[in-house]
Here is the input.
Amino acid sequence: MMTPLLAFSLALLLSFASGPAHLLPASNARGQERSGSLGNQPGERDNGEENQELPLPARPEALLETPVGPFQVPYDAVHERRLANGLVLVAVSDPSVPLVDVAIALRVGARLEESARKDGSRWPAGVASMTASMLSRGGVEGVAPEALDAQLEFFGLRVESFGGRHRSGLVASGSVRDFDRLSLHCAQMLTQPAFDAARFDFYRRNIDEGLARRYDSGQAVAEREWLAAIFGRDHARARPLTRADTAQWSPELLRQFHATYYQPSETVIAVAGGLDPVQALDRFEELLAGWSGGDGDPGDHHRPVGGSGSAEGTAEGTAEGPSGPRGHLNEIGTAAQSEDASTTGVLAPERAVSQSRSQTLSTGQRRAEAAPKFARFAQLPRPLEQGILLIGALGLERRSWADSRSFVAELLGEILGGPGPVSRLRGRLRSREGLVYNAWGGVGVGSSEEGLIEMGWQVDPDNALQSLRAGLEEIERLRNVAVRQVELDLARKSLIDSLPSLFDSAEKVAGRYAEDVLLGRPHEFWQNYAQRLEAVTSSDLERLAREVLQPSRFDAVWIGPMLPEKALEALGFRLVQILPERDPVTLEPVSQPARARGQ
Amino acid sequence: MIDRVLCCVERPLGTPAAPTSWARAVPLWPAKKGRVAMVLARVLVPVAVLVATVPGGVISAQQASPGGREPEPWFTVESFELSNGVRVHFVRRPLAHSVAAGWAVRSGIADDPVDAPGVAHMVEHLLFQGSQNVGTRDWQREKVLLERRDHLAASGASVETIQALDRQLDSVQLPNDVAKVTADASIVGSGALTTDDFSFFTGSFPPERFEAWLWIESDRIRAPALRGIEREKGVIAEETLQRSAAARSAIEVEFDSFFWGRSPYGRAADGSPADLARLSRGQALDFLNEAYSPDRLTVAVVGNLRVEDVRAITERYFGSLGSLGSLLSRGSREHDGTESANPGGLSSPGIAGGGRIESADTKEPPDHLFNAVPRGGLMEGSCDCRPSVRIRFATVAYHHEDAVTFDVLAAILNGRSGRLYLSLVASGDAFAAYASHKAQARAGSFSVVAEAAERGAAAPDLERLRIGLRKQLRDLVDPESGLREIELERAKNILRAEAAREVKSSEALRSRLLIDDALGDPDRLAQWPELLQSVSVEDVGRVLSRWLNQDAGVTLVLERSRPSRPGDAGSRE
Here is the structure.
């Protein structure tokens, strides 16, 4: 437990007050000077006389002599308090910000729908997401939702709730002066939601209506079909929501779910902004110290996992969450919202899950049992001007927060298709061949379940085969050719350079710290992050690439004009499958699979 | 992403809109205590209805309006001009670990020459392909090869001949050098954006790398190479397709063209595929020469730096930029035989008349996207989307004094306690209803939109929504149902908070400073609280009557395509 350190926060503020002492003024420019007059170079701008007296360096490397100091994770500014009921409060102050941000996150999500209810029956799919979504929409005890909406909007307060597979919660913000009001609303929504019947009906109708439109977007269809290809259509991580699921929901059911799983011991609250952090903690303690919450068993697989990130750990991984700057590393609120937006929120409910899954097999064992003999290419014919291609396989499951393979995987993903400067997919498909606007890829490391290896792009159907061939070649190259040291160093530097952006505001610092608590991630993880990446070698990358980038494990999904089966077989796909269109409501096939183009 | 908007120059681009140097302390909540008592007297009953039932929600006079509170310091913007006219905005953030910086050129898609549509976006792409100093083993040799290639392409040389030259270029170019230079300087989030009115380039880095960032960014235009245009044509074509992949995007582009007619804002972002294929390196060089002059450039920096460092080092790199030398440009034009006729958008907008639509029939939309386009300003179409009605009105430019009033009007209409939701959504007629104001450098547009509750909504249902939207605008100036002070205060509170949220990240604040400047109102952020506070009920009524009256507006009615997807055959359950 961290002791509040207001004095240290002040010192931190003062330490920045004088700016970086090593930033040299222009007259002290270092390094190689440009040879000759600027004006003598064809195509260059005709620069004024005043500035020609100070020739500019010929290359920017000359300006890199001043070292960038190692990044210090600013957790010293964090104030933490653990209440007797298990609730964890975190606060970080930034007096320059006139806002206060509140993020409330719980280890509650759709995974709990796989648990049995007290009467032995199963929770309907989507109930976790709907419960979370209604926290901010359905009013609170004694206050109608319309009155609550009016009050929030009158004061410019914003409160939104979200629910994903692993997390649920609220994010809120408003003027510092309205913090008492904002915190009261947040606490009431968390502990006394009303699940107003009329609002419930309204949002369920919207969800039902949304189900009928979920096949409008080719991208959404591609992701759904790809998950079905990876996990199987009835797997919990792939099965879309149906109206048979939503028909089982009711306000009473949401109350039951809330009363069962919303518990202070599963909750972390982060507060940040231009307010006294101690007063912020006092306020939430005043509001929530008496909260006892539900009595349901949230299960074991969300419990914190050990390992400091400084040494190889051995504990079995159980927490879920991000692995590094290229993962889901926003503050807890937005991270969970991001999950919400793409998976199980009210606005996109189709990915809510219900099926139980095996928890005992390792990735390798599961693949050995269930993997198809050869890679599969599934295509759903649609007359799109630009098709959508997704390729991937099951990724890794983290053994602990010190699991060295997760750092290797992060670098491998960065080189394969990360957003940094070394992405091979982007370099090949965009920069070299001009086939796509963007291509992405990553090697996912899950914590309570496997991550996903995924790569994809959108491409003119006429270029689809060429781009597919190039993408598969890049996978093969990663497997068979050692990554050059310069490439590894660039990827590593890119990841390390991204680290400060994760802590670039009080909101982010508070959120990251709270996320550590929520996931069981040691706070030292971030301070050791660069060191762990530095330890990864080219041999480590090669070993992992050979293990996880096996073409026979990869499934591909294409949404677009039909591609010829023979050409796909020539690329190495031994099974080419034509997917049927499905009724978006019932998910039953409504068309016979057509023959591939050219067949 | 490309924003669409357009029309009517009200102040020539490049005209300095601010004094040479100025600094502003920005309060979030300005003190206007005199107004509060009046506001409270008029809103007493509605406020009681709204908040008295909320535990702890009894509202006090001081709480009712943030306008009654003491000013709250926000941040200070330091603004100055470099010796060559480049404008700089700087916000110091002592707690920030990274610096968020960017620069913008106040020329965009609307400034494309008439004979080179798409060139602004192309230049933005080409500036990311390195320079004469980055990305090449030998610029002098590469320059000769590039010009020879330009000539061959213009003269219709065989593919084999051009490919042979490309192989020579491959041997002299260093495609990985750009990424290496960027990574070595610890720059992350390097990116660019082109809109109708501007392009901007951004990145984040440690404070120690500020000078390296300035070197790299100024080098893009100090020593441009503009290599790789053929490859980037393919990339832009894919980008355009990706952008239009949204179900209703294609028809919305057509609606833009319909709405804005022949004005520069009525153009497709990248021109047609044929336009894109015709673009030459010479045209790109001409545009760069014309549009990227120092008096059109703005730099924005947010982070833990000293203002004197920012001023001195920015002067060294961006202040030393002059007009482009002519050798490369002339040479290229001589070789490829093309010469831009008129960088028309820069000085000759296609629309006059204070932002009003010149004519609804200046551009005929293609038949396949809609059924009929009556001259009265109605466009009907269909898409794989929720049926909807959109009414769009021509309004004022970003820097116009009424622009903020339109923002306030949108906030009055929006939200779960706003008029559109309460009248159309809560009643079950609409799935969603909202208003938006989009003001850009030369004109703006105000839209009200209602999406039908039923995916199978037919013409009569949509007509009801259209009437409902019109009614909400009319009611705001009706003596019985007109705008109340409490609604105005609510809207201002929302907009104040939204502004604070928008700029709390350094990256967002950097972008906001660039955009405000590029759209012609660099002081917008600094003056925002006062601008908001000055908007009155009468102001809202005035803009409604003048710009959003019952005779104004162009309507887009979208029905759902049928048959489209499986499941649509069935009616709503």
Observations:
- The first helix of chain B runs from residue 33 to 51.
- The radius of gyration of chain B is 26 Å.
- Residues 1-71, 325-375, 563-573 of chain B have pLDDT under 50 and may be disordered.
- Chain B has 21 helices and twelve strands.
